[in-house]
Every structure is written in C-alpha cells, then in structure tokens.
UniProtKB/TrEMBL annotation:
Protein name per the record: Alpha/beta-hydrolase
Signal sequence interval, chain numbering: none
Regions crossing the membrane: 34-54
Species whose genome carries this gene: Pleurostoma richardsiae
GO molecular function, one term: hydrolase activity
Domain of life: Eukaryota
Family membership: Belongs to the peptidase S33 family.
Chain ranges of the Peptidase S33 tripeptidyl aminopeptidase-like C-terminal domain: 519-625
Keyword list, A-Z: Hydrolase, Membrane, Transmembrane, Transmembrane helix
Xref: InterPro entries: AB_hydrolase_fold, Pept_S33_TAP-like_C, Serine_prot/Carboxylest_S33
Length: 710
C-alpha cells in the first residue's frame, strides 16, 4: 500500500468509517486492510479520543449553524463555576456551537442537606445541555422537561456522551427535544472523582501533574496484569486475578473516610441526584419566566409544527442504556410519582441475589456468537471467513481451530512501528470478541477479517501497534475527563452487583456455574464477577430509598405516575431479553418492545420501528403493550409469550434497508428521514462503544497511543 493510501485510510478510520452504514457496504477492499488494524487498536484509540477534547459533527456531517452568540465559551470544566442553582454557560465549541454546561452543587450526603447541617460535604454534578432545534438558553425557548441521558457503565461519562453523540441522539428522538448528559457522582468531570490511584487529599482536587501521574500508575498496573490471561488460562490465573482486585480495593479503602465519595456513589444516591436535577431545572425555568416573561416555554416550532409537549413538568424524562436502566428503575422505585417518561434500553434486572443476575446476564451471549456463523454463511463472499461450499458449521470449525491454535501457540508479533514485542493469545482475542458482540452489525465483519487473517498465517507485524505508555507522560495533553475508578466503586456499593464473598472457592463455584451457561464465563468472571473481592467500604443510602418498595424479590409491582417503556434485543450479550421481561413485570402498566436484532441496546442496529415507538412514547404518551410472558415455558429456552416486536433495518455484512419486507410501519417515514436516522444511530453507536471498551478491553489492546499502518 502506498504511503498516500495509508494516510487516506487512517483519515477514514478516524472518521469512524469502519462501521457498516448506508453508504459503506461497497467500500473498497483497501478499507478492509485497515479494519484488521482496527481490531487490534481501534478500541483504545477511540477511548483515548473520548477523553481528549475534539470536534464533533452532526450525523449528516453538516456544520450546525449557531442559534445564539457565544461570548468566550468555556473550554475547560474549570471555567464552569459550581452553583446551587442551575446556571448554564456556553461551552466546548470544538464539539459544536450549541452546547451549554453547568456544575450543579448538591449534598454528598442527603442526610446532611446543604446549609442545614454544620458538616455538609458537597458534590458538583457536571452537566451538558444540547437544546432542541430553534431552542436556546439565550432566547429562553426551552422544554418543560429535558431528556436526561445515561450511557450506562456504571461509569459512563454522560457529558462526553452528549457532546459526542448529542446531535445523533436528538435526530433519533426528535429534534425538538432538549438533551442533558450528566456525569453521576464520582464520574468524569463531576467532583470529587472516585479515584483510588491519585494521591490528592480527601475531597481536594489533584493538579494536572497529579492527575497524569495517577493515569500512568493505573495504566502501568493494567499492563502488569495482562500476562495473567483469563481465569481458566492457567491453574493460578483465577487466584491471581482475585488477588489483584483485592489489592486495588485495599488501596481504595485507604482513601475512604466518613466524607469520602466512596461511601456516597451508589445508584440510589445518583437517583436522588436526578430528582434534584429535575427540581433545579424547574427552578431555573421559573427564573426564566420572571426574567423574560410568558410565552418562552416550549412553543410549536417549524421543525415539528404539530408537536404538543407532554405534561411532564416536575417529572423525569429519561433514556438510560444498560446500567442506566438499573438507575432508571431505582429512580422509579424511589420517586414513583415523578416518572414523566422513562425509556430503559438494554435492561439490567434488579434481583435480590446478585449472583443469580451475574449468571443470568450471559443467558443469550452464546446465541450472539452462533449468529456470527449464521450471518457469515448467509452473506457468503461478503464474509472473509467464508469459503465456497461452506455450511455454518464449517465456519464455526474454522474459528474454533484458530482459537485452539492461539491457546496452544500464541502469536509473537514484532510490530513494525515500535520495538515492543506483542503476544496475541486466545484470551486477548476472546475479550475482543466479547466487545464485538455488543455491535454485531459493525463488529462481525471485523471479526471475520481478523480470524481469516490469522487462519491464513499472514505476518501481523505491519498491522500491530504495541502498547505504549509514553504519551501519558506528556504534560500538555488536553484532557476533558481523566479515567477514574467509578465503575468499581459503584458496582461494589450496589448489592445488586456484588459478586461472591466467600473467597477463592466461592469465585470458583460461580465460575463453574457461569461455564455451564456460556463460552464467555471466563471473560465475565474476569471483568465483572471478581471486581469487588475484598471491598470493605460500607455504602450509605439516601433518605428517599425504601428497600420495601425496591423492585426485587416478592415486593409488589410499583405504580408509577406514567408507565415505563422497556426495550430489549432478541439476543443481547449481557442484558438478555428475559431480564427485560422480568423488569417490566415489576412496574404497573410497563410496556416492552423486543427489537429483533443481536447486540447490546437498541442502537446495536437501526430499527425505524423502534425509533417510531420511542418517539410515540415520548411525544404522544403511547406506551407499548404490557408483555404477556409464560415464565415457566421460557425457563430453558426461547422466551414464550406475546409482546410488541420491531424488525431491524440492517444486519451484519448487509446494508441499511429503509423498508423491511412484510412490515408496513417503515413506510411512514418521510423521504430521506429514514437514512438520516440510520446515520444518527451509527454515529451514536460509534461513540458509545468507547464506553464499553473502557470497561472491557484487555490492556494490551487498550493502551495504545497511535494508529500506525504498514
């Protein structure tokens, strides 16, 4: 490949063109050559870009015209002054000219309210607002109830999510919606961070040097652990993984104190914060009315002339993904009369016994892998692992042969661009495969190319980039939000996420239970099940939490002020359809939509039907039907019952199809709108996958700093 072609391919990669989109199915095979490099480096590269300040575009790639005059917009969270009342400031113009930021000061401990207790530690919740089309803080034209977004995790950075994906998400739900992304306590730009690696004093802000040192310490620790492999890779692997988790948790415990964020970061506290955000928005609207007079709140606009705002004043309007569904369900349990609209997408169950949920999460994981072989066979030559005359089982055998060879004889690769040897073993590829299953429409072609390349014995030296920590030593990195330990802190604060507590033997038993359910038991044990080993920080609960009302066990269904909308995919690798059905039964009148696709959350594939039902729910209050589920008949097989289902308009190795044969609902879209929605879904999926990678990718595939192609 010529150097000019390499540079062009790198630019295409950086723009996210590796995703399968409406205009991407016929890309040249040159793009495929870059895809294998993507396999080994794309996830950290994207994660790194997520942490760095960078430009953003609308899904249609047109520059969004400013709807107001920005005077010196903030370019750092340090420029945003915390306030006990909402105060919006223009911010981060590199992402677009329409964003506003705020830092809302709230009690760290709601038992010690601000200004009503002699000791009241605080949190400053970072928030980003993207107003709807023709809406603006400057003019005072805004919604009665904005749409709060949580990207999942736990640990997802909501401010970055809206900065990077806001235009796409607004296209999906309707451009008249105002969107707010917020960083839950302990996360991202919210202060204080739940960071076990920094050396700052309790509830004090580390300086930039201390932050970068903490980042380097964390990265070094991760690299040290990469040689262990997965829990079943050696006789000592599980014990070593547990011991390393205990070491980090011990370090967190040393930083704990009665006023430390570690005790106050659990999901119920964040749910109470969301209620505070709703109240703060209402208070801010009152001030707007006083300052600007009547007539400025949610008027009909040309973009949606027939739109009539729902009666959601003083209530939460929310779209939560994955862990965000648990956060939404917790809010509904704590504040049932404050539910305006809740879309819970990629549903996590809230069980009383955590170990049962951890095992049940992998119920459909292997089905996603099986569908890879199905779609590869169905697509024929479009799938690089396919050979003429193959059946699906032949493709599976080819895949299994490659994995077995990596198990017995890992590849030693000398990268062409760094003098650091790289070992590619079965554990690394298996973890990568686990992440790919979150987004099969985009990831399956990459998987096919990677396995085929290894199968054919191609020298990987020109394609592999070695782990390199040198960039973390640079003192001039423009970091929007540093990594922290919020995912660990939240998981271990929530009893739902706490895994086995009986020592190594207990972890071994849980692993064996998982192994009877899924091929990916070792990955799940490594990244989730063992996380809280040795965690001894006792979490607190806010005053609004009543465990007798919590949606678990035999507690009666919760009657919310408006029914909840649940969305689950047919085969989701970590939040199976069954969990969506279980959760829907815990709330009176809740409806469920099954999206007929693989992957995690509805954005794993474009479904115009799902988008239409979301819009109808948000704008018109049309709730999907309450599912009728035969639990006993569904115990050991596919889910049996009756509920609403939506086809996807794309599948792996295919192209976007505006109309699904045999489904009449797709014809309702205006010309061009279907394609715009598909592009929007892809843009959201492209950015949100980095949240997944931050949690799940192995260090040798994450700690990469540059994209290099031979």
């Amino acid at each position: 490949m010529k150097k000019a072609d390499v540079n062009q391919e790198q630019e295409s990669y950086r723009e996210g063109l590796w995703l399968v989109g409406p205009n991407q199915a016929r890309k040249s095979t040159k793009l495929h050559s870059i895809l294998f490099t993507s396999l080994l480096v794309l996830f950290l590269f994207l994660t790194r870009d997520t942490w760095l300040v960078g430009p953003s575009r609308r899904p249609d790639e047109e520059q969004h015209p400013p709807c107001h005059n920005h005077d010196s917009p903030a370019t750092s969270w340090a420029d945003i002054v915390p306030s006990e009342k909402l105060s919006w400031s223009p911010c981060f113009p590199a992402f677009g000219q329409d964003f506003y930021c705020a830092r809302l000061t709230l009690p760290m401990d709601y038992h010690r309210p601000l200004n009503a207790s002699p000791s009241h530690p605080k949190v400053h919740i970072a928030m980003v607002l993207l107003p709807g089309v023709n809406h603006s803080v400057d003019t005072g034209l805004v919604s009665e109830s904005p749409l709060l977004i949580n990207p999942g995790g736990p640990g997802g950075v909501g401010t970055l999510d809206v900065l990077v994906t806001g235009y796409g998400m607004r296209e999906i739900v309707g451009n008249h919606h105002d969107l707010i992304g917020f960083d839950p306590r302990g996360i991202g730009a919210t202060w204080p961070q739940a960071d076990c690696f920094d050396a700052a004093e309790l509830n004090s802000s580390p300086d930039e040097v201390e932050k970068q040192e903490a980042w380097l310490h964390r990265a070094t620790w991760q690299v040290e652990g990469q040689a262990i492999g997965l829990p079943n890779s050696t006789e000592r692997a599980l014990a070593d993984i547990v011991r390393r988790q205990e070491a980090v948790n011990k370090m967190c415990g040393i930083k704990d104190d009665k006023d430390s964020i570690f005790r106050y970061a659990g999901t119920p506290h964040v749910a109470q914060d969301m209620m505070s955000i709703v109240n703060a928005w209402d208070g801010w609207l009152e001030e707007l009315r006083d300052a600007k007079g009547p007539g400025h709140i949610e008027q009909p606009i040309s973009a949606v002339a027939t739109y009539s705002p729902p009666d959601t004043k003083g209530k939460l309007v929310y779209w939560g993904f994955s862990y965000g569904t648990m956060l939404g369900a917790t809010f509904a349990a704590m504040f049932p009369q404050s539910v305006g609209r809740l879309i819970l997408d990629g549903v996590v169950e809230t069980p009383r016994v955590a170990a049962n949920m951890l095992v049940d999460s992998l119920r459909d994981t292997d089905a996603v892998l099986s569908d890879f072989f199905y779609y590869c066979h169905k697509s024929g030559p479009k799938c690089r692992l396919y050979r003429e005359g193959d059946e699906a089982r032949d493709i599976r055998e080819r895949f299994e042969g490659v994995m077995a060879s990596l198990e017995d004889d890992p590849l030693t690769v000398i990268p062409a661009h760094a003098r650091i040897p790289v070992i590619i073993d079965a554990s690394a590829i298996k973890r990568l495969l686990f992440v790919i299953m979150y987004i099969p429409t985009a990831g399956f072609p990459v998987l096919a190319l990677a396995i085929d390349t290894i199968y054919r014995g191609v020298d990987l030296g020109p394609l592999v980039v070695a782990p390199d920590l040198a960039p973390l030593c640079h003192r001039k990195l423009d970091i929007l939000a540093y990594p922290e330990d919020s995912s660990r802190v939240i998981r271990c604060s929530d009893t739902t996420y706490q895994g086995p507590s009986g020592g190594l033997e207990d972890f071994q038993r849980t692993f064996e239970r998982l192994a009877n359910v899924s091929y990916f038991a070792d990955v799940w044990t490594d990244i989730v099940v063992t996380t809280c080993s040795g965690w001894d920080i006792t979490p607190t609960t806010p005053p609004a939490l009543d465990w007798e009302r919590f949606p678990w066990g035999d507690n009666p269904p919760i009657n919310t002020s408006f029914p909840i909308m649940f969305v689950s995919n047919t085969h989701d690798p970590v939040t199976p359809l069954r969990q969506g059905l279980v959760q829907a039964g815990k709330f009176v009148g809740a409806g469920l939509v099954e999206q007929l696709s693989d992957g995690h959350c509805s954005i794993a594939a474009t479904s115009l039907c799902t988008v239409a039902k979301m819009r109808a729910y948000l704008d018109d209050g049309i709730v999907p039907d309450v599912p009728e589920w035969d639990k006993e008949a569904s115990e050991d097989g596919p889910m049996v019952g009756k509920w609403e289902k939506c086809p996807a308009n794309e599948e792996p190795f295919g192209v976007f199809e505006p109309v699904v044969q045999g489904f009449s609902g797709d014809g309702l879209w205006a010309q061009g709108e279907a394609t715009r929605i598909s592009v929007a879904v892809h843009s959201v999926r492209d950015a949100m996958r980095s949240q997944t990678v931050r949690t799940f990718m192995p260090p040798q595939l994450r700690l990469l700093s540059e994209l290099a192609v031979g």
